[in-house]
């Protein structure tokens, strides 16, 4: 078969990147736990693989999530990813069709127009050639948008864009050159050999009338090959690693593999799957406090480059807003926690002072109530809960009324996993010893850790908003809708952290009027008080809080309701509007009704008297 | 026209004189020094905003030269007698003045730090008072210690001569805490490399922007505050000082070597105040400051009808408070004269 | 250090010291530690200064050590002190000359108590009368023996055979003065020069040609502290206190330490030996200790008394370096000779710097 | 060495001249808000660990400022990082970061204090 030296750089590059990817993915997968490996083995020939393929198509090629966020940005990504994919596929079909063989080397497909100088004759050849031309135009439109985005990102609805490093610059330059060069090379060849199709032929004719196309043909094909090579070679050190790695990620995720409390192959895959699109920058509230270098995209980049500092790693609220926006669906919170565990593993505490005595709880106890450390600084919540328990005639054990260890979540958030396990073990023992089967928690921070990291077989863990809703539905609480306009603020650990959005709203709706706001549920703001961030300064927290409050205030609510003592304290400090926990509002309504009944009863008694 | 004699030409005296002159009275100020301004002349910059003292002084000077009241310099009062509803004031040089009302504005004296012998003021080379430091803080002030080097470690002692039975003063001088903070900051600006410590018993940041300045001292100027009163200082062979205190918050004794010790001296009722009190038969508090007729409503009245009090002869007072107290004294004198 | 400042303080604290006719009360422990010191004092007063000083063999301990160790109650010690006064009154004296700093403190404390609480005085008169049948007058003047030497320091200078000057270099000897805590820390006005900058020893040293070393831990207690020393396991506290002083004075390279207290010279002397044994550390020149003297011994040396007659061989830190510097002639062979000139044997414990 | 039946007593005095400020300086550089501690003790009063063990958060400040790293290391480990102290601190000090910084860096500077 005919050949030309310019195919060699491309072929070697392709070989290099293929080997590199096979080796690195093998290393990552071999670094998974036994359970995860058996998950792969048991899932590979199941429906899960089909789902993964579908997801790959929808997300990696069509970029559905980006489309949802922004049409132009979605089109740009789709044109490049899906366009290039189709170009490769159609290019190969074209080559197979022409050579009547399936064992055509890749370069024959990629440099088809160079090797096949005669014009297309059959209908299939003509159609395929036209397809290739159109695909190239499609991709070029995306490249044009990418040029434009670099110059002006705001058009794409992106406020900030990531900064580039050398590897990224090379790969980006290569990527930007590949398609224009191919188009030029094909057009020039078409100008010489008249073998072009609907777009390349006219372009070739124009070029041949303007330029010395004969002397340009070889340099352009060489340049095209070199651009491809450059792209392949720079891929491992650039963000474009996400293109192949994301596919692996999608498969593993569909097989049920999740981030562990330690760094493993899967967490490496997550790190390499970040495309550095920068969408996470937009949702990050840290920017409200002018903190602009600690966002997920930067942290993942620093992890890859092994230059992550604690100052950046720990300067994050772990609110999870970026995670719900991430087009790749990375587990950004868990990834960061894993990294924190790694960073602090040398200095955990052992809490030898924790000693469990006998737990004396009456056997009729229906509920264990755990208020949480923070709740002890918001006694109104505790009082409301106690009163509601009394109204509903619930027998409960107030587990942390005094002398109780912390739940362990704050330690977990800063990566002190081993230390957290000690507290968890200690509390777990007390909870199990109580023999009750329901644990009601007032603090979402505690709630999350009780739910996820405690082994409490046979015990239902509920946040008090869920529990109060249950009491209400079971008619154990009186109803009274107050004329109170309420904005409900989703606490991060309860909302995005535990997926509890509806229960508090349903409950609140029975006792007050809930006004929907722009940023709520998945996109709800963080109050700024998060314990997960140990680096942020108080004034910065205030800035974040004020920005969130501004939106809430624009709805002119009577009360800002929340379901977290920390959110309550954080917002209340601003002194801009009354802030109440959901339990307080329920209790307020119940109390109001009881008072009303009393007055009515008195009135009746009076009337009775005058009769 | 009524004649009012004001004893003392400090801030309080001049301020009262100026206001009473404006009200149309004939005013004579008796000042024992050659110049007016009193203790203000010892100071360079004022807390809490580092206002140069010259700014206040020049306003006082202006009032002295522009307003029509007379000042008898280097003159002291020997006795005051009431005669036919008027006051006969005998002054040095055997002159006599007749006045319808008298305002005592004799101010305060700085505590003589030598009385706290254990701190070695005037014995150890590098122990100075806040008043001494104030002069050194002027742009040309020489802060160098032994061997002509800048001090590397400096300690301030709060409450020297205040809140101290051993000094005979049970009261708080009010202004030393903030003076210490102010001077520590000024020192830090001059000596960015030095370590600066304040040994305090309580920090009484009672005034507007005082607490903020204290916080700034910690946050921005790295001044370290150690709770504990200095027990003693001793000079070492290299003229540096060994100081001892209890770090009361750790509950352990603490010693450190320093290059400069600044004693934040308190205020005392001066000799002038005592003699003024004796000569006109007005009472003194246990603290030695002059007794006011009532602590809420008559803070400018002495126990003697017609004798008024202004400024820090009644209690330790900041410049700001003194000005206000003097103005209210003028108001009270004027009202009283009109009523007669 | 500014001398003018100190002079000001010294002027502020001048006390009245009786001129003649003293009733002498001895120290309990000094008679054991440095028996020559009190003897020297009496000799100086009687033969050099021609003063009348009387001591009554019936006088007892003031019981101050027992009092400070919480063994002797206040009523008891008041009565014991009243008895001393009765002896003085009976002998026709009015001026008390006290050898011991502890006693000096006790006498002052009790006299001041009687001034503040006259009922106590009446009670004690009654106690004494009932117990012994004696009556007493409160002394008109209470002086410490060092006050008296201070008062006549210039007359001693006039008779001096030696000066506190290094004969080799001609420079004044550098001398550390240590004042017993109970001399003026309880009542600053009862001490010459007050509590912070006492002048009593400074005055002697300077008028006899020496130079005083004022070092940071000058005011610090020697560490005796009664209970600290009397209970053996507590002696670590005592030695640590002295050590703190040695560490602080060492940079000044002092030639001698002089004290006016019974306990202090004993501890400053003995602890140097103990520290050398425990830690191998010495504070004087050439691996020697710093010689420690009482002010009487210092006066005796100035007046040319034989060091062995004054009992300087009883010191555990050898005094020879100081004697050499002052150019005092002594016979090393007679150091441990008895009164009759026969050698009575070297001590079992070898002193510091040997 | 002769046995006299007693030993030298360790000084209780904090000798400031022996103070090793490296850890303090590092912590203050990374968390400047710690400079403004007033030693009010609010943190200790609210501390969740205080109920369970003898522990004093306020004293961390002093131990650090006096260079007592040995005691500091054993004390600091008692903190459960619950964050209540930060909600009561009148000066808005980022206490949890201080604790984490000390825990991290203390092994570097662990010196036996005399």
Number of helices of chain C: 16
Largest interface: A-D, 35 and 27 residues
CATH superfamily of the largest domain in chain B, called what?
A: FAD/NAD(P)-binding domain
Residue runs with pLDDT of under 50 for 5 or more positions of chain B: none
| Range of strand content of chain C | 5-15%
Number of strands of chain C: 8
CATH architecture of the largest domain in chain C: 3-Layer(aba) Sandwich
The CATH first-level class of the largest domain in chain B comes to Alpha Beta
Q: What topology emerges from the helices and strands here?
A:
The complex is a heterotetramer of chains A (611), B (340), C (354) and D (114).
Chain B: E1 3-7, H1 11-22, E2 26-30, E3 45-46, E4 51-52, H2 53-66, E5 70-72, E6 77-83, E7 86-91, E8 95-99, E9 101-104, E10 108-110, E11 127-129, H3 130-136, E12 153-160, H4 176-190, E13 195-200, H5 210-219, E14 224-227, E15 230-235, E16 241-247, E17 252-258, E18 260-265, E19 267-269, H6 271-280, E20 307-309, H7 319-339
Parallel strand pairs in B: 1-2, 1-9, 2-5, 9-20, 11-18, 12-13, 12-18, 13-14
Antiparallel strand pairs in B: 3-4, 6-7, 7-8, 10-19, 15-16, 16-17
Chain C: H1 3-12, E1 22-25, H2 30-33, H3 35-48, E2 53-54, H4 64-68, H5 74-91, E3 95-98, H6 101-116, H7 118-132, E4 141-144, H8 145-151, H9 153-159, E5 174-178, H10 181-184, H11 200-207, E6 211-213, H12 227-230, H13 235-249, E7 256-259, H14 263-279, E8 292-294, H15 295-302, H16 320-326
Parallel strand pairs in C: 1-2, 1-3, 3-4, 5-6, 5-7, 7-8
Helix pairs in contact in C: 3-15, 5-7, 6-7, 8-11, 13-14
Chain D: E1 14-15, H1 22-30, H2 42-46, H3 57-65, H4 69-76, H5 84-88, H6 95-109
Helix pairs in contact in D: 1-6, 3-4, 4-6
Which descriptors apply to this entry?
heterotetramer; A: 611 residues; D: 114 residues; mainly alpha
